[in-house]
Q: What sequence folds into this?
């Protein structure tokens, strides 16, 4: 609460001296305290379905929301729209292939940004371009510079002195193996064995076979592998697409 309230005051998030006028409704809100560890986390929770009309004699002083709050239904849309306008104002162009990627070219200087909610990963061909991009964003928002990127969305980023960049999801792979009880499995040179043929004939044909596969997390495993396929392991694409054909009724061979 001590952290949120000064921020809201500084950004003019609420108007605290509003008299509610009839027939407008108010939304009930309350502070919720989380005690997961020694650190106490506070959240202001408002449920939009709990609107009500103030009764005669009740205090009509309410908070009027001036800007969208993070976590509200409209919040994500407004934030994305605002950030797009900010990047556009600084001379960036949005990628047609991925709307979260923006780029800017000044002479021979290239600057790229990638946005995930309110986390922005950036790269520039020059140190001056890096400092300029950070200064421009800092003039529009209150930002926290985390320095050279080391980890983002579960991917480890390794950069060499020569400018090479490598992405790794080793930690994510190890968590998947542990989650699906395959930590002791033997490694394989290819995602699928050579010459493997799978078909609908391999699906369970009897109640006993279906019961045997009932508790096998086949879809969950495929869904977890898709993030690897998209991010750092495109070589898994064929195997995942093939196995996904049988996700409605997988058998032992699958």
A:
């Amino acid at each position: 609460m001590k952290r949120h309230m000064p921020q809201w005051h500084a950004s003019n998030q609420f108007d605290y001296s509003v008299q509610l006028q009839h027939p407008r409704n108010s939304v009930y809100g309350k502070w919720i305290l989380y005690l997961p560890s020694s650190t106490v986390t506070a959240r202001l929770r408002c449920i939009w379905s709990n609107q009500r009309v103030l009764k005669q004699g009740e205090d009509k002083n309410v908070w009027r929301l001036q800007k969208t709050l993070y976590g509200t239904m409209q919040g994500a849309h407004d934030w994305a729209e605002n950030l797009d306008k900010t990047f556009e104002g600084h001379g960036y162009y949005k990628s047609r292939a991925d709307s979260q990627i923006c780029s800017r070219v000044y002479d021979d200087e290239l600057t790229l940004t990638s946005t995930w909610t309110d986390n922005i990963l950036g790269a520039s061909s020059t140190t001056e371009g890096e400092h300029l991009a950070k200064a421009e964003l800092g003039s529009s928002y209150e930002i926290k510079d985390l320095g050279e990127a080391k980890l983002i969305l579960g991917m480890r980023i390794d950069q060499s002195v020569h400018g090479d960049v490598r992405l790794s999801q080793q930690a994510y792979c190890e968590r998947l193996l542990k989650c699906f009880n395959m930590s002791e499995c033997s490694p394989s040179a290819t995602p699928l064995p050579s010459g493997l043929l799978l078909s609908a004939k391999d699906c369970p044909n009897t109640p006993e076979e279906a019961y045997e596969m009932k508790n096998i997390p086949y879809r969950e495993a495929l869904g977890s592998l898709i993030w690897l396929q998209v991010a750092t392991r495109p070589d898994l694409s064929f195997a995942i697409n093939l196995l996904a054909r049988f996700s409605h009724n997988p058998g032992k061979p699958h």
In short: The chain has three domains: 4-65, 75-147, 170-184+194-244. The helical segments are 4-10, 75-89, 127-140, 170-179, 207-213, 218-231, 237-244. Residues 4-65 form one domain.
